[in-house]
Amino acid sequence: GPAMQDTIAGTTQVFFSSTAAALPQIKAGQLRALAVTTPTRNAALPDVPAVAETLPGYDVTLWHGIVGPKGMPPAIVERINAEVAKALALPAAVDVLKGDGVSPAPGTPAQFRAQIAKGLALWGKVAKDAGVKPE
After folding, report:
1. Cβ density class 115-124: b for 16+ within 10 Å, e for less
2. How many angstroms separate the CA atoms of 91 and 122, rounded?
3. Burial class (CB in 10 A: 0-12, 13-18, 19+), 51
């Protein structure tokens, strides 16, 4: 929020935001979208290029998921996953999400674990290469 307001006010020149958070300000003309960080253009901003068009392979996709406590029974995990997938497939949900520039992408619990592991490996390497120390 503060970074967005600072950019709108001209205090900062650029910042990274989720499409869903920035889209209303982009549509209102308060912000100018320079690029999206997903591998391809976003349907909500079809004229805004993807960074990957200039830097092939660039992919910093924002994603969300649902997690539970360690040891949650697999049957409960599967049930929650199935119900969330059903909800994400509802036309009304798809319309709302796409209107926010979000693409629903349900998957299996194993796929989600793999996504988390991929992110930890990527950002762990970025932090290590940058010399970031845990505080």
Report:
1. eeeeeeeeee
2. 34
3. middle
Cα distance between residue 57 and residue 38, in whole Å: 10
Sign, Cα dihedral of 47, 126, 63, 26: negative
**Among candidates 86, 81, 99, which has minimal Cα distance to 45?**
99
pLDDT of residue 103: 87
Mean pLDDT by 10 residues, the chain (135 residues): 93 93 94 95 95 95 92 96 95 92 91 94 94 90
Distance between CA atoms of residues 20 and 97, nearest Å: 8
Burial of residue 23 (CB within 10 Å: 0-12, 13-18, 19+) is buried
Q: What tokens were used for 125?
A: 């390497």
**Tokens 């995990």 -> residue:** 77
Q: What's the pTM?
A: 0.77
The structure tokens listed for 92 are: 């009304």
